[in-house]
Amino acid sequence: MLLSTKNILSTKELTKQDIQQILDTADSFKEISTRSIKKVPTLRGKTIINLFFEPSTRTRTSFEIAGKRLSADVINISGSTSSAVKGENIIDTARNLEAMTPDILVVRHQCSGVPALLSQFVDSPIINAGDGAHEHPSQALLDLLTIRSHRGNLEGLKVAIVGDITHSRVARSNIKAMQTMGMKVRVVGPPPLIPVGLESLGIEVSHNLTTAIEDVDVVMILRIQLERQNQGLLSSLREYSNYFCLTAKALAKARDDILIIHPGPVNRGIEIALDVMESPRSLILNQVTNGVAIRMALFYLLLGEGNANPN
Ligand code: CP
């Protein structure tokens, strides 16, 4: 069965069946990354272009590794070394890349909506690898895979998402995907960092970290975006940390088996304490590992290989 969408621009457009299929396919691909020769011929002859206009460690590397593990040819382009610096606009850049007949474009951009815009000008499927404060759908999918791998299912699980909800593309993608999968979402943070009106979307809002995580299965800590500190939304990082850093003390009343996730990069000691980050309940590196499997699954399913044997 193929996905109901040609592009991965947002988790809003993914059905429950789509998400289940992506997670199941990713699960079936995990084993490839444990082999001594980590490569299968599934996407031999396919060409993937990673077009990154914003810095990235995890997302860009895992898209590249995912393509290579499936034997696709992968080309990486960063905004700072492309002809964008000479003034070429993003639509022309994408159309020129498409003239070289790639099979898929992976796009990260600092402006919300760029991957969706490009999808109107090129025929190749586009994966949004993070656009401004809008969405980061493959991150949400790898988060769901990580949670499902540890809990067996997603339906009915309670999640607290802590931090700058307003500016987080990770939160936006996760909230939609988690609700689609029947999970209960609570957001936690200081009032300036939480959009108004979330309750009407079925999302609980809390401003108290300790009580908000008492009954949840999963706590997702978001990165405090230091680049936004000049917007006057926080009085100081120290004050934020005093109230919202995930510490052992804040976790004292939480479930013993609570799962702790964070999309990275981490500001150590600001949003999560060092000992919590390194504790067995922290799945941060497990998320990164799962990112490769999720991106392999997205390539495989979007390139129309969904009915073939992946191995
Ligand atoms: N989680 C995430 O998107 O990390 P990078 O910015 O390093 O890709």
Can you lay out the helices and strands and say which pair or pack?
Layout: H1 16-29, E1 47-52, H2 58-69, E2 73-78, H3 90-98, E3 104-109, H4 114-119, E4 126-131, H5 137-151, E5 158-162, H6 169-180, E6 184-188, E7 204-206, H7 209-212, E8 218-221, H8 237-244, E9 259-261, H9 274-277, H10 284-302
Helix pairs in contact: 1-5, 1-10, 2-10, 5-6, 5-10
The protein binds phosphoric acid mono(formamide)ester.
> Uncertain segments of ≥5 residues (pLDDT<50)?
307-311
Q: Strand percentage, roughly?
A: 5-15%
Mean pLDDT: 95
Helix/strand-derived class?
A: alpha/beta
Radius of gyration: 19 Å
What is the overall shape?
globular
Number of E-type strands: 9
Helix content: 25-40%
Question: How far is the first residue's CA from the last residue's CA?
Answer: 17 Å
Alpha plus pi helix count: 10
In short:
By secondary structure, this protein is an alpha/beta fold. The protein folds into two domains: 11-134 and 291-302, Rossmann fold, CATH 3.40.50.1370; 137-287, Aspartate/ornithine carbamoyltransferase (Rossmann fold). It has helices at 16-29, 58-69, 90-98, 114-119, 137-151, 169-180, 209-212, 237-244, 274-277, 284-302; strands at 47-52, 73-78, 104-109, 126-131, 158-162, 184-188, 204-206, 218-221, 259-261.
